[in-house]
Amino acid sequence: MEAVLESHETAYQDKIKEYLMILNTAQSNLLEVQEQKRVSLVERDLELAQKLQLQENQLHKQLEGLLQRRKQLLVHLRKNGLSGKSLRDVCRIQGWDDDPIMSSLLQEARRLAEALRQTSWGTWVFSHRASQFYGSVLKLIAQGGKKSAVYHDGSTINQEPTGGSLLDASI
Fold first, then answer.
1. How many domains in the chain?
2. Domain span at residue 121?
3. Per the domain annotation, does 167 fall within a domain?
4. Do the Cβ atoms of 41 and 123 come closer than 8 Å?
5. Backbone φ and ψ of 148, nearest 5°
6. What three-state secondary structure class fits 23?
7. 137-148: buried (b, 16+ CB within 10 Å) or exposed (e) per residue?
8. In a domain? residue 26
C-alpha cells in the first residue's frame, strides 16, 4: 500500500516539475517579447511593436491555459490528500522542495513572475506618460499653438494628477 502511495506522490512530483518547466519557458518567452516591445516603443518602431503585441497576446493565452492546468493539478492533488493553496505549498508540505531540481524550478518561476511584473509596470508607465504627452500636444494644436488662459492664483489647478511617483516607486 505504501509503495502505491509513494508512486502516486512521485508521479505528482514529476507532473509538478513538468508543469514548472513549461511555465518557466512560457514566462521567459513573454519576458523576452516584452523587453523587445519596450525597445521598439522607445525607438518608435510601431510596426514591430504591433507584431510583438500579437506574440504577447498569444503568450498571455498560453499562460492562461497554464493557469487552468495548475488549477486542475491542485484539484487532483487535493483529491489524493495532498493539500496546499499553491503548488509551492504542496511541495513545501510534502518536502519536495528539498529536491534541488524542484527547488530551482520553483525559484525560477518566482523570479520570472517578478521580472514580468516589473516589466509590465514599466511598460504601463511609459505608455501612460507618452499618452499624456501626446494629449498635451494635441491640445496645443487644437488651440492653434496658444496656451489656454489661466485664471487662478498660480497653483496647478489645470494639471491632472498622474500618480507617477507611486508607479515609479514600484519599479
1. 1
2. 2-147
3. no
4. yes
5. -70, 150
6. helix
7. eeeeeeeeeeee
8. yes
